[in-house]
Amino acid sequence: xxxxxxxxxxxxxxxxxxxxxxxxxxxxxxxxxxxxxxxxxxxxxxxxxxxxxxxxxxxxxxxxxxxxxxxxxxxxxxxxxxxxxxxxxxxxxxxxxxxxxxxxxxxxxxxxxxxxxxxxxxxxxxxxxxxxxxxxxxxxxxxxxxxxxxxxxxxxxxxxxxxxxxxxxxxxxxxxxxxxxxxxxxxxx
Length: 189
What we know:
CATH class of the largest domain: Mainly Alpha
Oligomer: single chain
Number of domains: 2
CATH topology of the largest domain: Methane Monooxygenase Hydroxylase, Chain G, domain 1
Shape: elongated
Strand content: 5-15%
CATH architecture of the largest domain: Up-down Bundle
Structural class: mainly alpha
Order of helices and strands: HHHHEEEEHE
Distance between the termini: 69 Å
């Protein structure tokens, strides 16, 4: 069974060492048993708020919970740093030996996402990107005069003269372009 002092020692080691620390075998089940035992002591003592045993047990339980949160916060930061390094340089098996099962999952998901982000960034830097054309509106320049017309969402629009520029719903703009009455303007130029 794990003790309060052992939990505190784990925090101290995790806090003051750069590498993830190996946790004792069955750490989580023993920790759960320890917390349950403290809760049972509090339940057995009842409502005697002035009992020194209850005060000490309550304080130890509260402190243990705070320590556990700090341990896993520190471990999560270390896992994220390890994942970042692994995504850039690779990782050896021994670097992940001290991870708990759910921590390994966090590590693997984070590495996979970072690697995917790096691939996308390199893809863009290599000039292999497509301009997004999935817009709701298009900028067009009219080639000839167009009388006013109705759009279901916008109501009456126009009239337009040759050379006028408009930002119209994609469907309407595509019809005008197809009829040769307008040309699309690249919004990035």
